Structure formats: C-alpha cells, structure tokens
C-alpha cells in the first residue's frame, strides 16, 4: 500500500490510508518521498516518540509483520527497505545518509541504500549506517553500530558490529 493520505488521529488509533496499522503513542511522520507498508505494521511511540522522515525523492519500504519499538528514528534520503517479520528495538537509529562530508577529500555519495532482510531482530540502541545490507534471520545485539554488511543467519554485536556466532534457523521459522 502506498501512503497517500495524511496521518490523522481518531480515538487514540492512527490510520494510514485504508489500512490501520497499530500505532501507539507519539509517531511523527515527515513524508516528502514515498512510503510503502505491508500488512500488520506495529509502532509503539511510548514512552519515547518514533520519528520517521522520508525526504523528497526518497523511498521507505516496510514489509509485512514489522514491529518498531519506542524512540526509533528512521530517515530515508535515498532508500530504506525493511523486510517481513522484522523487529526493531527501542532507541534504534536507521539513517541512509551521512548528511555532510567528513573532510574535503570525502567525495563519495552522502546517501546509500539500506536493506534489512526478513526475520531480522535489531536490539535496543543500535545504529544502522548508510549502505548496509543485513541478511535474513540475523540478530543485531543491543548497542551495536552496523557499518558493514551483515550476512544471513548470524548474531553480530559491538561497535563496529562483528560476527559473534552463526545462528541455526530452521526453514520457515519466524521469531516471535
């Protein structure tokens, strides 16, 4: 579904277009680009507000059965894709842009696409940086900074995040 209507509040339940994702607490959406969401999106904006920003020309694509916890910040300046059955822990930041150059020798792109696979669990206080791909079924430990790609079926942690161990994931298993 493409979000084309204005976010509004009705009896404590927020609605996006014709679907009604579960949005509890404060959820701020600054939409100048495109948002596409799947079924069963759930966002908890309590006790900390959730901030979602999509700049002009950017895209945010969210799959089915995604949960976004309190205090999460998502800023799409190019493109962020979040797969199905993803859980995002509180106070996590997902930004696809550095917003400014580090020094005068830095000539690279400021914004790079982020892709988060299916059945991924991102713990509390994580930072997902531009250009990162996180593989299916992976877990990002709390307080981790992901600055490089993460393969499928692994637990990563630290700052910068490194593989801690491989995970045993049965075919078709989805995290509760």
TrEMBL record:
Lipoprotein keyword on record: no
Keyword check for Phosphoprotein: no
Stored InterPro entries: Hexapep, Hexapeptide_acetyltransf, Trimer_LpxA-like_sf
Gene Ontology molecular function: any one: O-acyltransferase activity
Coiled-coil ranges from the UniProt annotation: none
Keywords: Transferase
Pfam families: Hexapep
UniProt similarity note: Belongs to the transferase hexapeptide repeat family.
UniProt protein name: Acetyltransferase
Natural source organism: Cohnella zeiphila
């Amino acid at each position: 579904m493409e979000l084309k209507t204005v976010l509004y509040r009705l009896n404590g339940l927020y609605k996006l277009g014709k679907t009604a994702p579960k949005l509890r607490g404060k959820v701020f959406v600054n939409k100048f680009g495109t948002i596409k969401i799947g079924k069963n999106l759930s966002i908890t904006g309590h006790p900390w507000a959730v901030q979602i920003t999509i700049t002009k020309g950017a895209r945010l694509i969210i799959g089915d059965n995604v949960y976004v916890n309190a205090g999460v910040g998502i800023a799409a300046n190019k493109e962020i894709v979040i797969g199905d059955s993803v859980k995002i822990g509180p106070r996590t930041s997902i930004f696809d842009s550095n917003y400014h150059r580090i020094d005068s020798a830095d000539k690279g792109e400021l914004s790079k696409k982020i892709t988060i696979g299916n059945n991924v669990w991102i713990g509390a206080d994580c930072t997902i940086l531009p250009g990162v791909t996180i593989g299916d079924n992976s877990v990002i430990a709390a307080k981790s900074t992901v600055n490089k790609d993460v393969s499928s079926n692994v637990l990563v942690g630290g700052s910068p995040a490194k593989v801690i161990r491989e995970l045993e994931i049965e075919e078709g298993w989805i995290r509760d």
